[in-house]
């Protein structure tokens, strides 16, 4: 060992005071000074955001929970990724910097590594040397150093993995290194709502929602150049913000893109509404000086970390999340959540997946999705829960499944990271189709809230190859819409059925033709008689060409009946009468005189007689129809009510207004009780208003007609014949 090495070793085993001067032969050493503590430590990694949009409701709650007055306070901002939690926390940090004696410190709390790194940086600011301390000792020293400050604020940002701080996890925890005491302020931000009630008190959590419309407009305008703001149309802005779901990250990215590329709002909106370019816009990852550069700013990728955490923590939550990504995003009944957590759409699934999860397990799994803000509880009424899911989250999940789909190499081998058939868009969309279809198979007329979900799952038929199953479900949906009288909404459903069946079965398949026949009925009720006639003739001809249906087949008779009804509505009464009598003759022979369809045609013939001025024949036939329907269906069946309503019209035409009023009021009361807000209800209201006119009760008639017009405009539109 040389002399110099021996001298260094001896020095290493001794202790000297600060700035000690040592003279030992030819060796002169000045020990380094520990860093002098800053008068007031400030560690904030981001610049002040001058363009921050003031979010009054959230900021007011935050200031109430974390006042600058003496004492110890803590709170948490939690919510969906991209909702603006970090920006609100950053604004709070800079507002507290107004106090010249307050230390303001920032820690990235998303991992133990970032937590430790930021604590080291804070330690240097506080004059705590990291040379002699490391690991837990350093963290504890920094904690003590913060507590020793007279006034301090600590921001713990992105504490998304609450297990790091001991929540739901045994063993080591960073929680013991979080400062406390009688003075100081701690503000957490997290995507996990479970932070409320664990790391902060139950009343000290603030959920950060999407922006209000006014806030989102302000953010959009701040992100755009001045010359672009002048050309923005209110309707275009409203539509754009609706598509972006008022999510700050999405709104900000849209504004930046439009400014950078000089794209007008209208053009950007058109791109966003196109399936081919929508994902290209939403996955843009523009940098933001107020966010960490290594964290994605892409709308479609911002929730990837949270989704992966859910997958690690709860397979059931992950499954439910991915199934409901293919449902309509609003008013999701808890029944569908339970169904999403059960069963399988693939025989290749692991046997353990067939275990039936209990209602409690499903509720716990759904609760975790609520805590991550992927779901929001919409209502809880009479024990029935429903939820809503952020539309962009649904898109991000579908995008994630799409991009991980296996591609085939030139040798035919899969190039995907995972080739599991249970983690694909085809798999999850097929489950969504199955659980909704089960509802419609088991309940003849399910609640209207299920219809949007059925329509939505039909959109993925080409993805999962279930065109035939989806078309069968949409036929059930169409039948429900018929019962509810939602004709305008029913038309696109009927057309979707035809498209799916044409693709899967061919244009001349009997099921495809049946779909066309259903559309004929819809067009009749919409008052588009020329279209209906053309399609009804096509249906009749296709059924004849099929060779499997004779002229006396019920479906052939029904096709003829549609044409008779169309002629009736077109005031072609002679043609309608001739065809109706022909249909009646066939029906009596094939299905019998008292069959409901035969009775329907008798009623139509009575209406034709009435229109031709043959009042007595019409009344006799109408009363026969009413008696048969009462006997078969009872008084509260829609068909019976329709007969009562038609008889009221006939009596009114004969000047028997008192009898007519009595029947019209009876029909209206029954329609309101049985069908509620329905076109048949509106028509009967209009009939009663007309009777009032004949009775000289003009004020009552006017009021009732105003109600009818308002309802028809809402449900039928301004071009429907009834509305006109």
Automatic annotation (TrEMBL):
Ranges where the ORC1/DEAH AAA+ ATPase domain occurs: 76-163
InterPro entries reported for this sequence: AAA_22, Kinesin_light, P-loop_NTPase, TPR-like_helical_dom_sf, TPR_rpt
Subcellular location: Cytoplasm, Cytoskeleton
The keyword Transferase belongs to this UniProt entry's keyword annotation: no
Pfam family, one: TPR_10
Cellular component GO terms held in the UniProt record: cytoplasm; kinesin complex; microtubule
UniProt cross-references to SUPFAM superfamilies, sorted A to Z: P-loop containing nucleoside triphosphate hydrolases, TPR-like
Annotated GO biological process: microtubule-based movement
Protein name as annotated: ORC1/DEAH AAA+ ATPase domain-containing protein
